[in-house]
Amino acid sequence: MHPTHQELDVKAAVLTVSDTRTVEDDRGGKIIQDLLHEADFTIAAYDIIKDEPKLLAERIKQWHTDLAISAIIITGGTGFTPRDQTYDTITPLFDKEMTGFGELFRMLSYDEIGPRAMFSRATAGSIGQTAVYLLPGSTNAVKLGMTKLILPTVQHFIGELKRV
Which fold has domain 11-162? Predict the structure, then answer.
């Protein structure tokens, strides 16, 4: 039988990428943290940074080398506006991309918002032994990604990354 790793403790870092959000009005970041807490997972770090590729890459490189962090969940910057740099900055850092994550996310989003779902560049992948997720900034997208895709599988993803 294939292991599911349901016993693993998830230690997640949450990053909101936004030029305008603050801790007080970061609804997407708060939803991610609340859902992680409800699942009895640990929130190892939280931050908000501007949509600047250099800052974003530096933060992800810092977090993925931190042994207290097993997953990084990023919200914001996955669209097509000139300021949306998350996808373009993070995917080159991936050792492996989980293409199915984005495909399923867009399929599920289509049921809610129709063809506009194709404008999301949500994805996931691994950097070393760290699971990394990129979600859009909308609260509906965050809830969908967390409840339908991330929470049900993050322990398995982390377990697979740590298998020898």
Answer: Molybdenum Cofactor Biosythetic Enzyme; Chain A (3.40.980)
